[in-house]
Design goal:
The structure holds 3 protein chains of 3 kinds.
Chain A (H helix, E strand, L loop, with lengths): L15 H4 L3 E10 L4 E11 L4 E5 L6 H9 L6 E6 L2 E2 L10 E4 L11 H11 L4 H14 L4 H4 L9 H13 L5 E5 L7 H18 L2 E6 L2 H7 L2 E6 L2 E6 L1 H6 L4 H6 L4 E6 L17 H4 L6 E6 L4 E4 L8 E11 L2 E8 L4 E6 L11 E6 L10
Helix pairs in contact in A: 3-4, 3-6, 4-6
Chain B lengths: L11 H28 L17 H11 L3 H4 L1 H32 L5 H13 L2 H14 L7 H24 L3 H9 L4 H30 L2 H6 L7 H11 L4 H30 L3
Helix pairs in contact in B: 1-12, 2-12, 4-7, 4-9, 4-11, 5-7, 7-9, 8-9, 9-12
Chain C lengths: L23 H30 L13 H5 L3 H34 L3 H16 L2 H12 L4 H9 L12 H25 L3 H9 L4 H29 L3 H6 L7 H11 L3 H32 L1
The chains are: A alpha+beta, B mainly alpha, C mainly alpha.
């Protein structure tokens, strides 16, 4: 797989294998303690060649269990796992050809960098000369020159370097699929961002299929082509990072991916729009059924347009009650005329507005979502 | 400002009291060992204190008993050999039984694990005398002679928990992901154990073996019930010798035993210290 | 709308997991088999003793009678058990008291080297041959021993103090050889108390003594109870120390068993005594588990 970057990919639809996803999960479930604990249930996913998919969810959502099932470290209690179209159920981890970069990295502390990277090849009875060449190439790929690092013990390496060793050790075995179990959780923010970009560029260069498991939505967004959101053992939504951020399928996904405003609105017949207590947010009202159905409207703070002067009849009156400045942005807490509160995020300081300033609020209907559940 | 003392979170006076109390208590606890060593150097043939001088004559007597003309008659060398063989075999059996059991207890989940975990501790607290007489009754009901193996089996029973504890502690300090990493890299479970787990818990296994060796070498209660003319360990030799005459040679022999014990314990401690510095992060 | 499941589950038959791999239980049973055999021998021993306690002399494995059990209730034997339990109780209280400062030192010493040295010193009395140490006590406590020669120089004594071959000497030996059993659980309980908790109490106005009374002792209590009961159980069955230090003057349950089995060859009665001793030990360990786990749930 190290050399795949140089190989020409088969033309689109040219080979049968190309159409089959590298990994398919079909209704996979896992019970622990004889069914008392359902760690994962009904999970279906697929990963295509060259794609990096993040599994994102809070801790305890089942994402690690799912990954361990793909790697062959746990057996699912229901469903099927297929790699390159073939079911791998019952196949032990050492026969699956799935790479796994562990959260703790799991670098063998009693082996040198070289021995760590060569381990997988040795297990596959690779000839010595081939091992040398492949280990060198792998260390090259992760930018750990063999001349300097090969003979070092893991204890002599920094966190970032250990990360690279773990990656090289997995890449060198040319797995069908690489799984990453939050391997950068222990690194500090800046190094983590740097490594995330680097990891993605290596993955793209080698055109390898990968799954990245994390609870950090920023890393997931930066890393992945698609994100699968998991909550309490189920896959709740799969899509591109931007898609999921803008169109979360439920409240959990919306809140998990960032700050969100939630306002109650009631759809009204057109002639009663000015009744006190009613709420009109842009044209959103028009999308709703007429009647008295109460609905919750969600939107991101950065999608709120805050103005000192009224520009449109749809604007809603409000009063600023607090303002915070963080990371170059102003966060305004605004109380609307009917008593509900929202947060708006702007780059401008609204000409020195502060607590008590009257403002007009507008949200474009494109940015409003009304998830179920 | 508060001055830092040798004990965390204590002021000088309190630290001093605790330190002194510890020193005095440990001094008293070690007194018998020190007394044996001191008296072994007496030139007199009684065990009165203080010894009237210093001499190595009882060590010379011991040497004579080990390698002199009457060595076969006094049976010191024979019992020493027996004790070492029994301790060695016991260590081997405990290693063979203890390492896989510790592995199962730490790494696997299986039915009856809680029960097994409780039972592992059983031999520690089971009264040794009851074990001794019960084994004696069982052995004498057997139609054949077990030789030194009746000592080996008895010692293995009581030493096994120490082996399991030591290995289990080493395994608990090991990231389970290491072995899983080896698995995902293509190593079969057995290969992963041999290439990754075993080298990393080696110190725990070795110190377990040494501990078992010492326990078996010193064991008295079970040996008292199970020794035979052909399986005659050093502890029984010492006991019978002391019963016939209180002669300072038993103190010279005891000092040699203490020396062996302390050496092994220091090696175990050294290994334990290495173990902590060896680990990653 | 984003797609939730890109794989169409209906078009592919769903496999149930194949039992290709050994189940964890069968895998584990192979691994624990050798250890299980050794532990099984203990249970076999317990069963054998129980069986023979209902046998009769010279027909141990054949006869069924409660003769030996009735004999147990003769006052002379009850007195032996009372003495055994008394010695065990006294030794466990003493061991805990003596162990406490040592445990505090081990839990709080700044220097790792000192901590390790203390640990070795604590372990030595347990690891070094009991027989050899008993000879040491004979040297110290005997009529011409160290203790008497020191005392006779300090005060004019008409006759030497005798500690050998009596309860006091045996008690001393029991405490000394079982000390590690008390020190280790107390030290590990103390280690879990963060010094910050103590500091918080001090800041709130507690004196050091009050900190010991209200913070350290209650938090170390499970360790203290565990250590004390362990010493009790261990010393209730002690054989080597009373045999060697007590001479033939102090009779404990273990020595009585030895006499019945070895000298009088009365296996059934020896077995009755053994079963009682076994039950006492088990009851204590059961109590320890109850107390410690009950305590654990509270915190």
């Amino acid at each position: 797989m190290l050399n795949t970057a140089n190989q020409a990919l088969p033309p689109e639809g040219g080979s049968l294998n190309h159409n089959i996803p590298i990994l398919q999960l079909v209704g996979v479930g896992k019970d622990f303690a004889g069914g008392a604990v359902r760690a994962v249930h009904g999970a279906s996913l697929s990963v295509r060649a060259g794609e990096i998919l993040s599994i994102l969810g809070p801790s305890g959502c089942g994402k690690s269990t799912m990954m361990r099932m793909i790697a062959g470290l746990e057996d699912p209690t229901e469903g099927d796992i297929r790699i390159a179209g073939r079911s791998v159920l019952g196949l032990p981890a050492h026969k699956r050809n799935v790479g796994l970069v562990f959260q703790s990295l799991a670098i063998f502390p009693h082996m040198t960098v070289w021995q760590n990277v060569a381990f997988g090849l040795r297990m596959k009875q690779t000839p010595k000369a081939k091992i040398t060449a492949k280990v060198n190439a792998a260390l090259e790929t992760v930018q750990l020159p063999a001349r300097t690092f090969a003979q070092r013990l893991p204890g002599q390496l920094s966190g970032g370097q250990l990360q690279r060793v773990a990656l090289a050790r997995t890449l060198v075995t040319e797995p069908a699929l690489i799984l990453f179990d939050e391997p950068m959780a222990a690194l500090d923010r800046r190094l983590r961002d740097h490594m995330a970009v680097e990891l993605r560029s290596i993955q793209k260069a080698l055109n390898i299929a990968a799954i990245y498991v994390t609870h950090d939505q920023e890393t997931a967004s930066v890393m992945s082509d698609r994100i699968a959101i998991m909550n309490s053992g189920q896959v709740v939504q799969v899509g591109t990072p931007a898609d999921i951020y803008r169109r979360p399928s439920n409240r959990f996904v919306a809140e998990f991916l960032g700050d969100v405003n939630c306002l109650r609105a009631r759809s009204q017949p057109a002639d009663q729009t000015d009744r006190p207590g009613s709420l009109i947010l842009g044209g959103a009202i028009g999308d709703m059924e007429a009647g008295t159905l109460e609905q919750e409207l969600f939107f991101r703070p950065e999608h709120v347009l805050l103005q000192i002067r009224r520009k449109s009849p749809d604007d809603i009156a409000g009063t600023i009650i607090d303002v915070q400045f963080a990371s170059g942005l102003f966060n305004w807490r605004v109380r609307l005329s009917d008593g509900q509160e929202l947060v708006a995020r702007t780059t401008s300081d609204l000409a020195g507005a502060g607590s008590g300033t009257a403002v007009w609020v507008q949200v474009s209907p494109d940015n409003i979502f009304t998830p179920q559940g | 400002m508060r001055r830092s003392t040798s004990l965390i979170g204590m002021q000088r006076c309190e630290a001093l009291i605790v330190t002194c109390a510890t020193a005095v208590i440990l001094g008293i606890m070690l007194l018998p060992i020190v007394a044996v060593i001191l008296i072994s150097f007496t030139p007199s043939s009684s065990i009165g204190f203080p010894p009237p001088g210093l001499s190595l004559k009882w060590y010379a007597a011991t040497y004579d008993m080990l390698f002199g003309h009457d060595a076969d008659l006094v049976r010191l060398r024979e019992s020493l050999t027996t004790s070492i063989s029994v301790a060695g075999l016991t260590a081997a059996i405990c290693c063979f039984a203890g390492v896989p059991a510790a592995y199962a207890l730490v790494r696997l989940s299986f039915r009856g694990k809680t029960l097994f975990n409780e039972l592992v501790e059983l031999p520690i607290i089971f009264p040794a005398i009851v074990l001794g007489i019960a084994l004696l009754m069982i052995v004498s009901a057997l139609p054949f002679d077990l030789g030194i193996f009746q000592l080996v089996v008895a010692h293995s029973i009581i030493a096994l928990p120490f082996m399991i504890r030591n290995v289990a502690a080493a395994l608990q300090g090991l990231d389970p992901a290491l072995q899983e990493a080896a698995n995902t890299l293509g190593a079969s479970p057995l290969r992963a154990f041999g290439e990754v787990v075993l080298p990393l818990i080696r110190n725990g296994v070795v110190s377990g073996i040494l501990l078992v060796f010492v326990l078996s070498f010193n064991e008295f209660t079970l040996s008292y019930f199970l020794y035979t003319v052909d399986a005659f360990p050093l502890s029984i030799w010492l006991f019978q010798k002391a019963n016939t005459t209180i002669d300072p040679t038993i103190f010279a022999v005891s000092t040699v035993v203490i020396l062996i014990n302390v050496l092994v314990i220091l090696v175990v401690d050294r290994i334990a210290g290495e173990n902590t510095s060896n680990k990653l992060s | 709308m984003s797609s939730v499941s890109p794989v169409a589950p209906t078009s592919i038959p769903v496999h149930s997991p194949k039992p290709h791999r050994r189940s964890p239980t069968s895998y584990a049973s192979v691994l624990i088999a050798p250890a299980g055999m050794l532990i099984g021998l203990v249970i076999l021993c317990a069963a054998a003793v129980l069986r023979i306690s209902f046998g009769s002399k010279n027909a141990e494995w054949i006869a069924w009678t409660v003769e030996s059990w009735i004999a147990l209730f003769e006052p002379i034997y009850l007195r032996v058990f009372a003495k055994t339990l008394g010695l065990a109780a006294a030794s466990s209280i003493l061991a805990v008291v003596v162990a406490f400062p040592v445990a505090v030192y081990m839990a709080r010493a700044r220097s790792a080297a000192l901590r390790r040295t203390v640990l070795i010193c604590v372990m030595l009395p347990m690891l070094v041959s009991l027989l050899v140490q008993s000879y040491g006590w004979i040297v110290i406590l005997g009529p011409n021993g160290i203790l008497n020669s020191v005392f006779s120089r300090l005060v004019d004594m008409t006759e030497p103090i005798s500690l050998l071959f009596n309860d006091t000497g045996v008690l001393l030996g029991l405490v000394q050889t079982s000390l590690p059993l008390a020190v280790l659980p107390i030290a590990s309980a103390l280690r879990t108390i963060s010094p910050e908790v103590e500091e918080a109490a001090s800041v709130l106005g507690a004196s050091r003594l009050a900190v010991y009374r209200t913070i350290i002792l209650p938090l170390a209590w499970p360790g203290i109870v565990a250590g004390g009961l362990l010493v009790f159980a261990f010393n209730a069955g002690a054989f080597a120390v009373p045999l060697l230090i007590g001479g033939l003057k102090v009779t404990t349950a273990a020595l009585l068993i030895r006499d019945e089995m070895g000298t009088l060859l009365n296996w059934p009665f020896g077995s009755v005594l053994s079963v009682v001793l076994m039950l006492i030990t088990m009851a204590i360990l059961f109590a320890r588990r109850m107390l410690v786990s009950g305590r654990g749930q509270q915190i």
